[in-house]
Amino acid sequence: MTEASPESRSRLLANWRVYFGVAIILVTLVLGISEAVSQHRESRYVAEMAQNIVRQANASDETSTIIALRDYLRRNVTRDNYPVRGRPFLRDTAAYALQTGQGRCGESTRAFVNMAESLGLHAYRLYIEGLPLEHVVALVRLNDGRQLLVDSTDRPYIQDLVELNQLERYHFNYYSSINLHRWLRRPSLPANTYDPPGLSYFYENPHALKALFYFSLSLACAGLWGLRFARRYVRASRAPAIPASAVGRQSPAIATVD
Fold first, then answer.
1. Confidence of residue 244 (pLDDT cuts 50, 70, 90)
2. How confident is the model at residue 198 (pLDDT cuts 50, 70, 90)?
3. Can you give the residue range of the structural domain that contains 191?
4. Rounded Cα distance, 126 and 117, in Å
5. Were 188 and a residue from 122, 139, 181, 208 both cysteine, which residue would form a disulfide, CB within 3.0 to 4.6 Å?
6. Which of 74-88, 132-146, 186-200, 222-236 has the lowest mean pLDDT?
7. Are 200 and 124 in contact (CB under 8 A)?
8. Which residues touch 225 (CB under 8 Å, ≥6 apart)?
9. What's the predicted TM-score (pTM) here?
10. In this structure, is residue 4 part of a structural domain?
11. CB-CB contact of 194 with 181 (8 Å)
């Protein structure tokens, strides 16, 4: 059996690279679409739950809507038999907390934030600390400019709706919308309510975050693949053209002698 020439081996390797690149793009696209569909289903479920809760409570303004959502979560989502360790890295979704009735402060806050956002109320999570306590609540920005703290857990530390500037009354001396300080085990940022547009949505919706990751990876692979072919095209276009009269003509220096 004849051994493959270097040119054929190089061509085979190039083909496999193309197939592998196409496979990665297709797989990441499929995964991204799957996560996006899951997110759409869960968002619709959470929005329907929020509408039902508000309708049953006869809530007619921002404050009564917030209280209706908060009180529902306090009654129907519990930390009992819900583990502290072993939870998903991105934590359980809002739909999971509502469907199972299980979750700690982070899960309850996630459910509240998603329901509030579905009703047009801007809310996002806030990490608060007081020695030695760590807790998660929601911060809601009202149309009149007020910022209300909402503790929707089944064992709330903050019973009523209070403004952010009253947090110290409840023995919490630090707050941040970013939990980087928890990873470093010390406050690494000044107290803040940093809220870049769109961040809260992806932070509170794991399916949406994973869909963004897969779509970004697919786009990056397609971009690198396209860049590779563009470079090959540019190199080919810059190569010197061979005159037609020179094709098939041997150089005198390498001509064979009979």
1. low
2. confident
3. 15-214
4. 15
5. 181
6. 222-236
7. yes
8. 21, 25
9. 0.82
10. no
11. no
The total number of structural domains in the chain stands at: 1
Please return the burial class of 95, using the count of CB atoms within 10 Å of its CB with bins 0-12, 13-18 and 19+: buried
Beta bridge partners of 130: 133
**Which pLDDT score is estimated for 258?**
38
In angstroms, the CA 192 to CA 87 distance is 27
pLDDT digits (tens, 9 = 90+) for 38-69: 999 999 999 999 999 999 999 999 999 999 99
- Joined together, the tokens standing for residue 252 give 């005198």
Going by the DSSP 8-state scheme, the letter that residue 102 receives in this structure is B
CATH of the domain at 42: 3.10.620
Q: Count CB atoms within 10 A of the CB of residue 21.
A: 15
- 220 domain-assigned: no
Angle among Cα 231, 27, 25 to the nearest 5 degrees reads 15
DSSP state of 213: H
